Please model this.
Amino acid sequence: MAAELEIKFYFAYTSPFTYLAMEPAYALERDYRVRLRFIPFGVNIRKVYGGEVDQRDERNRRKLRYLYLDARRMAAERGLTIYPPKQIYSARLAFYGGMCAEDQGLFRPYAERVFERFWRRELAVENADELAAILEEIGADSAPFRAYVADEEAAAKPRLKACFAEADRDQVFGVPTLVIDGERFWGVDRMEWVRRKLDAMRLRR
Model:
């Protein structure tokens, strides 16, 4: 049997469109001879949308309101809940938790819980104890995560910076972005194009 093709999936837990793209991405592994590699990517929301929430001009406020309207429309079609956050959050600690879950073969259940609870406003995504509790809930050892948090410079930050450097080499500028054989696909609404490419590569199972 031919080896599975790696698809890079650049993501952020604080991106509603990444949340919406997760299940369609998992479906690619079911339907094609591919393997997803999830890579954290940090988006500077303040820079992109004009600073803190109360600093944004009317144009950026309208743009964000519309983007969340679209996200909630898409979510409603699939029975998902997306409540727009009331402030800008850092996903750094959640990324560390995802790395530890991935190392233990438990990335998917961890990611599913982080996404669902964050977008229902049931998770303080910057709270290490709440993230550790999710790791323990899915049967993962939370000790490596707590070690990451206790001394970020030792391993966690270098690992995250390596992910950001890889994103830069792949010319990624936003999430979700899938990279297939060097070609980028940005946005949940590009999944049909992704499938067409995989079909053209004769990778359907």
